[in-house]
Amino acid sequence: CATIPPLTRNSHHHTMAAEESKGDACCPAGSHPELILDESRQESLAGKVVTLSSGLVTYQVPAPDADCKKAIVLIYDVHGFSGGRIKGVCDAIAAQGFHVVMPDFYGESAGINDKGGFSSPEGVAWLKTYDWTRLEKNLKEVQTEVLEPKGITSVGAVGFCWGAYVVFKMSAAGMIRAGASCHPSLQIGPYLFEDPIADQAAAAKCPMLLCPAKNDPKEVQEGGVVQTSLTERDIACKVRAFPDMQHGFVPRGDATVPEIKRDVQLAVEEV
Question: Residues with Cβ < 8 Å from 115, sequence gap 6 or more?
Answer without folding.
Answer: 122, 123, 126, 127
